[in-house]
Amino acid sequence: MSNTPHTLQEEFPGEGAKISALKAENPRFAKLLEQYDAVNDKVHRAETRLDLITEEAEEHLRRERSQIKDEIARALRG
């Protein structure tokens, strides 16, 4: 989906090369990126009302996205 807010490029500006390198060498990190994109797409679809879900479910997705983002940030710092 295009124009999805909270893309990794927006969340980690200037880290594109490091993200690509880690993705290529670390399968766990690559999986985190896939999970982030999948959850982020779900949040975006809920926020734009393409998918109708409860507020609780939407909040759960936001928390999940935040947790994955934190793991990605830790990997980038490590």
TrEMBL record:
The keyword Coiled coil applies. Residues 29-74 form a coiled coil. Keywords: Coiled coil. It comes from the Bacteria. InterPro entries: DUF465, DUF465_sf. This is DUF465 domain-containing protein. It comes from Pseudogemmobacter lacusdianii. The lineage of its organism: Bacteria, Pseudomonadati, Pseudomonadota, Alphaproteobacteria, Rhodobacterales.
